[in-house]
Amino acid sequence: MKYDVVVVGAGIAGPIVARNVAKAGFSVLLIDKKPAIGTPKQCAEGISIKVFEKYDIPYDRRFINREIYGAKLYSPSGYELELRYKEASGVILERKVFDKMLAYYAARAGADVLARTEALDVIRKDGKIAGIKAKHEDEPVEIYADVIVAADGVESTIARKAGINTYAPPHEFDSSYEYEMLIEGYDPDLIHLWFGNEIAPRGYVWVFPKDEDRANVGIGIASDNPKTAKYYLDKWLRENNIPAKKLLEINVGVVPVGGFVKELVKDNVLVVGDAARQVNPMHGGGMAEAMEAGTIASKWIVKALEEENSELLKNYTTEWWETDGERLQKVLKVRRVTEKLTDEDLDLFIQILSGTDAEKIAGGDYGEVIKALLKHPKVILSPRRIKLLKELL
Q1: Is position 274 annotated in a ligand binding site?
Q2: What miscellaneous comment appears in this entry (predicted)?
Q3: Residue 87 in domain
Q4: 363 appears as a binding residue in the annotation
């Protein structure tokens, strides 16, 4: 088989690249090792409503469980911070349907799509990467392409085989554990997040409503914690008298929260999405980031193919780092500071911050918020808090 572009991985970034490049008139093959694209999910399934228009994705009720109107944050001692909008600000997806539909949009744009096709290695000819070796329904196959896109997740076989350095230390990953379950008592119009060093070390517990009485209930903690994510999630459920007896689905995953890949391109191979650690380090969400990276990557793939100049692919690295990469580096600074916060600090900040402030901090646009915090009396009286906040400026 021979294509202009082969995209390995049909999560979020891969189908965006495949669709955009196919729309430009080039031959594209999108492959995924799973028999059914989109399963199993490893995601809380929440995303900003803005992505649909920004990345030209239909607002299709087939993959939207519920519209969300904001968030509520809970401190270790139970203080609450609510951010509520009059109009929907986000949605809870059904990722099993959403991912498959993204692949469908790529196919409809002209890309070929093959499920149950696992990339095993790269093909080298005359010292250059000329394609990939794969296994389609247990049969070996060679796929030749001018451009290879590694969108194959955290472990990314293709990025590693191509010689792209994707190493990050264990501390730059979170371990997550999630139940899709029946649960009552929480406003289903909001997502709910609990913080605390005894609740979720370096992370948080979440309730993302999918129905009035059904939600994704999960946790993310530092992967190098001696205790498991499941231990902390089950402990939280017990302490809040929530019976874990109506479990519809259980999902386990590893989420990158740092360690962004420096060189996103090597020769004719590009790495995108989780494979490139393009994830928000503060909350571990990576869908919007994958869409953005896929959009930037596909733009430079099209230009490189049009001008028959593979050197243009390197502009993907440059543009990403000058835009979303710079923003995520700021968010990473926030994550590293929050790791040093005590439960007393978390109680204080949830009391004095507004919902908009919290949103800006999580998004990396926090300069003015931090300057205001440094003037707060309870911050001024603590040299340690002043030092921590100044690390963000």
Answers
A1: yes
A2: Reduction reaction proceeds via syn addition of hydrogen for double bonds.
A3: no
A4: yes
